[in-house]
Amino acid sequence: MxxxxxxxxxxxxxxxxxxxIVEKNDKYVVKKIFMAGGCQCSFQYHERKIETIIVxxxxxxxITDKTQLLLKPFEAAHIPxxxxxxxxxxxxxxxxxxxxxxxxxxxxxxxxxxxx
Length: 116
Known about the structure:
By secondary structure, this protein is an all-beta fold.
């Protein structure tokens, strides 16, 4: 048996923190994400991608066009396709994003960092 123990992690710097791709295959992606306190990602939606967020450390607010949800360690939220959303670091926050594999499926509606 050949186990991948995370030796091929791919760290990507972001203006609000960073993310590491822990696993990517044709069925799913797992990312470990750090969101700095007081920062947020773009307000966005996905046409195909589905996400589940699991907080490991800190507090993360998930903001949609209809509601807000505060997640603390070991709490999770599911974000279906088409839901407009953003993550906001209430504190420095470490979380997992488990999703379908469409990494480029991001439609940004608003962005604090002027990304297209």
